Predict the structure of serine C-palmitoyltransferase.
Amino acid sequence: MIKIPYLTALTTHFSYGLLFAFGQFRDFFRKIFDWWRTNNLQGYAPICLDFEDFYTRRLYLRIQDCFGRPISSAPDAWFDVVERYSNDNNKTLKRTEKRTRCLNLGSYNYLGFAASDEYCTPRAIDSLKRFSASTCSSRVDGGTTTVHTELEECVANYVGKPAAIAFGMGYVTNSAILPVLIGKGGLIISDSLNHNSIVNGARGSGATIRVFQHNTPSHLEKVLREQIAEGQPRTHRPWKKIIVVVEGIYSMEGEICRLPEIVSVCKKYKAYVYLDEAHSIGAVGKTGRGVCELLGVDTADVDIMMGTFTKSFGSCGGYIAGSKELIQYLKYTCPAHLYATSISPAAAQQIISAIKVILGEDGSSRGAQKLARIRENSNFFRSELQKMGFEVLGDNDSPIMPIMLYNPAKIPAFSRECLKQNVAVVTVTFPATPLLLARARICISASHTREDLIKALEVISQVGDLVGIKYFPAEPKKQQQEKEMIKLE
Ligand SMILES: Cc1ncc(COP(=O)(O)O)c(C=O)c1O
């Protein structure tokens, strides 16, 4: 649970109130001045949604330079950010030819495979030459190459399930699989902070959706008991099936799922467990096998294991791993398998190669080193941020660490000031987070060196002071000692 400091809550509400009032004021005049334009659309309903459109026009556009910054290199520890400018108060941004070399604290390149890798890159290039960039076909037509079948075997073996199916996109994996697994008469119980792909998949399924308090097994149990007692709406018949959906590491909070407790509740009430490991597979666990390995949960107790290849493996796509019958059923029925073009063979080869490195099957210990490094880097960075007085969300071992900003004025201030000092950070706000809970989301990579992290900490600390986001300041003497310690290390 995020508790906003009282004064911060007050100033944040006030700032949004001001932006809202000012936006309404501007809209009022726009209607008068643009009367002839709106008149052209007489008789039509507005094409844009009311609040989202207002939010985009009057709040987002003011700070849109902080989002979607174009990059002109691989998302390694350092990357090239393309400079942009605007001649119309940020409404439109134009790219320049200038590039700034920045420390990358925003990509999900957890193990560093997204940059050129001595083992993966040559193999991905070979695959590109042999198979081309696209299969130009769905899996059931001509889109299943030898690389695709190898990928599915490799993933199943890696995550510890009998079989797996791969898709071209992680988002689609959730949003297309849930409607195949469950429908009317079924019940999905979803963590309140699950990713949008899960929310949309659940909505598209037609099943009844109930939400439990984020990462709270006792509340999950309460919801399960109530729902089982209630049964289906109106008829009160028993649910056809119940699926509980959770994430391994929550992408906006950096929190690790309380999987052992959740699994035991699900077992008690005979509900299936669907685990989205987008941010945990490859990133945590002794051999990178995700939260099951980290928390000592038997993979046999997780019925549907979902994950993406876009983070730790430096590729694209997603997978579902489960029993042979489940995967076969998905292959016969899932529209994203039947009708969508299959994952690019070069991307598939990148994943296979990355898994081989992680498991040491490339004949080196680079995988183990990467795993040790991401853990050390994440824990070091998190503890230093906390010592500095930032409000940092998430758990130890998680490479995601959101720093709370809250106030809308602090979003661009933090992002722009960091960029000025060649540190690129990702800031996240509504609709990805609740309106009042804007944050900067730091993603740590195994490819960051200790010097990179120290530079980042120095910049973030300075900017944090400037912007006023050290909500829990340490005593000045202690802070000074800590700075000296960082330097000494
Ligand atoms: C928990 C979770 N699931 C699914 C996805 C979608 O994955 P992709 O970006 O690979 O499409 C994301 C994206 O970050 C995510 O955080």
Q: What stands out?
A: The chain has a mean pLDDT of 94. The CA atoms of residues 10 and 258 lie 32 Å apart.
